[in-house]
Specification:
The complex is a heterodimer of chains A (295) and B (380). Chain A has 295 residues and is an alpha/beta fold. Chain A is built from 15 helices and nine strands. In chain A, a hairpin with a 3-residue loop joins strand 6 (159-162) and strand 7 (166-169). In chain A, helix 11 (220-233) packs across helix 12 (244-256). Chain A is elongated, with a radius of gyration of 24 Å. Chain B has three domains: 8-86; 107-158 and 205-377, von Willebrand factor, type A domain (Rossmann fold), CATH 3.40.50; 168-202, no CATH class. Chain B has a six-stranded mixed β-sheet. The chains are: A alpha/beta (295), B alpha/beta (380).
Chain lengths: 295, 380
């Protein structure tokens, strides 16, 4: 058993409660996925449309477990150095200069690559902290194949060797959450290493609860009204479907405007909080009455 | 029916069942699955469902198959074969060697397609039949010499490159490589005698090929899919889609088996023989389903169709506008354009043309050579 699993003594329901304590409402599937990820332990790969709360899960988990969240945001061109460690070159130069001036024998290069010149990047931090953190590898699909292969290596060993310092490893690996927006297909080898959970858009009732939990200042009536319209919007063929974050923002925006439900008038002026594509705006405007029907 | 977590062998059998239905399940995943079920004991039906789904499935597309297989295995539905959905690539590797390129000169295949064509009611009217004639005139009569020319063309093809943000050591690169420079300076007691540099790496731009495989286009599309298969061996970043009445993705199917067989199977899937060609709907499906997954970012999109649209030209114009906004370049290959008397009058084509960077007549080997030239022209 790992440390995080030791600290985590409970079952699936405990996971649900722990996340609810962080204002994150997880369904049975997600709670099971997290439970298994903690107990097996294996990294958890989360996929789903943008805005279903993939990144939020990791934040809520770190909060709930009372450990640090270490986030590695992937981007195009990210490589091992940027994810793992770098040397602090300006300080190295200064040190060399001083050593040369002092002429205290030797050129000081022996301790040039010492711990104090090492700049930790997220992966090295996570490896060192081990079970004392949750490692979030966000939007892995933005990185390239080579980086994915490198990650696969790290995830299977949780150990790296820095030539000048030695091997650094975690006896208890951290809980790892990986998210992907599916802008490209991930390699099967990486997927096989991970548990996989697809997060769907929540159902209407669940979304109302989520709005209530995340934006407690919004009256229940408005929360319901916005959630209902958003769930209908997702039924339209839109280029960019509104996510849960959009529902929350929209409910907040309407609340700020002093509205207590979605109407034809306020839909028109506040639509920009939910719909963020020009073509989608006109699609929705042309079918506004249908969206509001019976609300 | 009370599900019993059952002995491990049952769980392994379930994993195997998923595999026979085309879900890629690795041995390690089955181990995780059995450990997870053992851990959750006593598991209820929901635990059993989620545990299996989380450990055994790792593609969203496989979830439907999993649901059906789960019902059949643990709940026992009256239906005999569980999943209604059989993934395209699930069948055996096909008889052809996927690494070899055959150009579909095989007579039987052409005949099968022709038989299909004859059943096709005059969907596109007179123009569709003239396309038929063109196809027979140009593609099917390709000589051995022409096939050899195509085979020679492929390995020399230089695909458009894109500078990535990844860097590598490069003597004249624009950036200073501090890590290597510092290391090098140690030899000179910490003086920076030589600066080491890094430059940006290049990699092929993604290419997306969307081919029309409906009756009138079948022959030429086949040549083009072969062409793209050749490209995909040069670069991993080639995506292939085909459409008739609907759109389907061919990339994965082509990777695991003979491109000809993959195309045949896909053709059955996307072509309703009486449905005509719905270019607008198909491209709209591409734009919303795949394009937004950034497949299009910086990509060269090649559409191959005669533009004989059955559906609404407005829809096609909408899809093309979005596509041209997402992609780097859009090439439209039109076999009909090879006719000297050709004028781009087909409704669909008229709607699409404003958003096309290059219109190429693709009826013959010269057409493919033109395409290769255009692609190479953008290399610089």
């Amino acid at each position: 058993m790992t440390k995080s699993a030791d600290r985590f003594t409970g079952d699936i329901a405990t996971v649900t409660e722990m996340l609810a304590g962080q204002a994150y409402l997880a369904d049975r599937g997600l709670s099971t996925a997290i439970y298994l990820s903690l107990t097996l332990p294996q990294p958890l790969l989360l996929e789903g449309e943008a805005g279903v709360g993939k990144t939020e899960v990791a934040k809520a988990l770190a909060g709930g477990l009372g450990v640090d969240l270490i986030r590695l945001q992937c981007y195009e061109g990210i490589d091992a150095n940027q994810a793992l460690y770098e040397w602090d070159y300006p300080r190295q130069f200064l040190y060399l200069r001083r050593a040369a001036e002092a002429e205290a024998g030797g050129d000081g290069s022996d301790d040039l690559f010492a711990e104090r010149f090492l700049v930790e990047r997220p992966l090295l931090q996570a490896i060192r902290k081990g079970a004392d953190c949750v490692l979030l590898i966000d939007e892995i699909d933005r990185a390239d194949d080579e980086f994915e292969a490198f990650l696969l290596e790290i995830l299977s060993e949780f150990q790296i060797s820095i030539p000048e310092i030695g091997t650094v490893g975690a006896s208890d690996p951290p809980l790892v959450i990986i998210t992907s927006n599916r802008t490209r297909e991930l390699h099967d080898a990486l997927k096989r290493r991970c548990l996989y959970h697809w997060i769907d858009f929540p159902g209407l009732e669940r979304e109302v609860e989520i709005v209530a939990a995340r934006a407690p200042e919004v009256p229940a009536r408005l929360a319901r009204s916005t959630s209902r319209v958003v769930s209908r919007l997702r039924g339209l063929e839109l280029v960019k479907q509104p996510g849960v974050a959009e529902t929350i923002n929209w409910a907040r925006a309407l609340n700020q405007l002093g509205e207590d439900e979605v109407t034809g008038d306020n839909l028109d002026i506040s639509l920009g909080s939910v719909i963020k594509d020009h073509d989608d705006l006109s699609t929705v405007r042309s079918r506004a009455t249908e969206m509001l029907d019976g609300t | 029916m009370g599900p019993k977590p059952g002995p491990t062998s049952e769980l392994v059998r379930f994993g195997r069942m998923l595999r026979t239905h085309g879900v890629k399940v690795g041995a390690g995943q089955v181990v995780s699955y059995t450990r997870a079920v053992a851990d959750l004991d006593p598991a209820d039906i929901d635990d059993l469902y989620w545990t299996g789904r989380i450990t055994l499935v790792n593609h969203q597309a496989d979830l439907a198959v999993y649901d059906a297989a789960f019902d059949a295995f643990f709940i026992g539905s009256e239906g005999d074969s569980p999943p209604a959905i059989m993934p395209l690539a699930s069948a055996d590797g096909g008889d052809g060697d996927p690494a070899s390129i055959s150009f579909g000169t095989d007579h039987q295949e052409v005949e099968v397609l022709d038989a299909g064509d004859e059943e096709l009611p005059a969907a596109g009217g007179p123009r569709a039949s003239s396309a038929e004639i063109l196809r027979t005139k140009h593609f099917d009569r390709w000589t051995e010499e022409e096939f050899r020319r195509l085979a020679r063309l492929l390995p020399t093809l230089r695909l458009p490159q894109k500078r990535t943000r990844r860097t590598r050591p490069s003597p004249r690169g624009p950036r200073i490589d501090l890590r290597r420079s510092v290391r090098h300076s140690l030899r000179y007691g910490g003086d920076l005698v030589h600066l080491r540099r890094r430059g940006r790496m290049e990699r092929p731009r993604p290419i997306v090929l969307i081919v029309d495989v409906s009756g009138s286009m079948a022959g030429f599309s086949r040549a083009l899919v072969q062409f793209s298969y050749g490209m995909s061996r040069a670069s991993q970043r080639v995506e292939v889609f085909c459409f008739g009445t609907r759109l389907t993705r061919l990339t994965n199917a082509m990777r695991v088996r003979d491109p000809n067989a993959a195309l045949d199977e896909a053709t059955d899937l996307v072509v309703d023989w009486d449905g005509g060609t719905r270019i607008g709907e198909s491209l709209a499906a591409y734009v919303t389903r795949w394009g937004k997954h950034r497949l299009n970012r910086g990509a060269t999109v090649i559409i191959c169709s005669d533009g004989l649209e059955r559906g609404e030209p407005d829809r096609l114009a909408w899809a093309m506008r979005r596509l041209s906004g997402q992609a780097r370049r859009v090439i439209w290959v039109n076999p009909l354009a090879g006719d000297p008397k050709f004028q781009p009058l087909a409704r669909g084509l008229v709607a699409a043309l404003p958003f096309v960077d290059e219109l190429i007549a693709g009826h013959s080997i010269e057409g493919l050579e033109d395409l290769a030239r255009v692609l190479e022209g953008w290399t610089a």
